[in-house]
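quick one, two chains, predict together pls
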Amino acid sequence: MAEQIVKAEGVHKSFGRLEVLKGISMEVSQGEVFVLIGPSGSGKSTLLRCINHLEKINAGRIWVDGDLVGYRQVGDKLHELRDSEAVAARAKIGMVFQHFNLFPHMTATENIVLAQRIVLNRSTDEARRRARELLERVGLADKIDEYPARLSGGQQQRVAIARALAMDPKVMLFDEVTSALDPELVKDVLDVMRELAKEGMTMLVVTHEMGFAREVANQVIFMDQGVIVEQGPPERVISDPKEERTKRFLGLVLEH
Amino acid sequence: MALIAASLIRSAIDNPNFHWDVVGDYLFDQRILDGVVKTIQLTVLGMVIGIILGIVLAVMRLSPNWLIRGASWFYIWIFRGTPLLVQILLWNFISALYPSIDLGIPFGPSFIHLNANDFITPFLAGMLALSLNEGAYMAEIVRAGIISVEEGQTEASKALGMTRFQTMRHIVLPQAMRVIIPPTGNETISMLKNTVLVSVIAVAELLYSAQLIYAQNFQQIPLLIVVCIWYLAMTTVLSIGQYFLERHYGRGRMRDEPMTLFEQIRSGWGARHADPDQLIQRHGDQSGGGGMA
């Protein structure tokens, strides 16, 4: 059996009195692509952010690559990690955001070089070489010295993917990465993700692109109101859902 | 309006009480030049220390730790809430408060012993007062800059494994600069003019140097005009510097690099003479850059 990369156990998360995740458990093995679908507000994005410790969980546990996320277990007690410790763990997890979040004051290459240098302590030469390699891979060889403002949304998102990949992550989290894009730009980004999946990257993808889910996912998770309603291979969950809530959601999404 | 302005200028030139010849005599007088240098020193040191202090205080103010936040709030409350002139006088008389300054371990051995009277010269007292006061104002400016940077920027850098300090230094502060620089330009100009306040503790900056001269020759008006001319010259230089700084930190924000002042003047002239086809061509190039989020 392949190595386990992400494991969640009874994860709860509340924002004030609003409980967003109500006991989520899942296991993702190396090389698997999990696609999370569900209505907005169902907790999909929050789950991704918890895996990356961008949000603190209120109960439960998450492991990435065998390490507890954000905490250290001493006996029965969990101790929250200090900033510098939590940070080291995060570098193993790549994340791509809906709104790209490229650094606007840096060129495409500089965006990719910075964290390699100051987090992984790579030499500038090595980091630049890697940046160029990755930009070529996402089809942006001619944009290496452009500032984000001069790139289209799809191009910016591909730079963001390259930036995350430069850290050699064990797992990539994609948070609605095509939702802010014009329809004609979506394909280029999905192509890059398809390519990644094919190369064996472990991925957790929150998306509304059912075609992508059907084609690329090993597992589809349907979430609603903070719980996993249904989980299984895409041909089961998307084409032949068992649960009423899944059917209703897919009916709405696939209609148009 | 033009008429009023013209008659004012005419009266200034005609009125012999202005003594323009005396103004000319003293404009480059050595004592005045020394005063100018002192004024520049005070401004530069005051601003540099003030800005560093301001950044530290602003970051402290945004700390999750309430004690650190409180310390910063307290500092700003004290230094922004009391008049600068009083602060200058207090620093000047600090030796009455602390006759000697010992640097070392509290209640332990001291490494450096300083006699406050010798150590705190009027220049140092003035500089301390100006910079510590400036720190409080800069803190608020820097804080406004920091919170103007989108949260997504911090999240992206966290997700890449950067520490809070690295995020601040490489991502947040450089972007905050765009918001920080214009008011900092104003602060620098204010600082330049506020340095005259240290004349009350006999620091020979520009105004005090002029006062020393007119105490002897009673040519108050021409010497004060000399002072004004120098201040105008210095503030003009500062404004030009500010323009270039803003341009530098605006990079990456605009589709096209902003033009220099010279290029703007040239292209303004050129646009009127360009043929329409060329203008359309240029416009087409710009909109071909694709959509921004």
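The radius of gyration of chain A is 18 Å.
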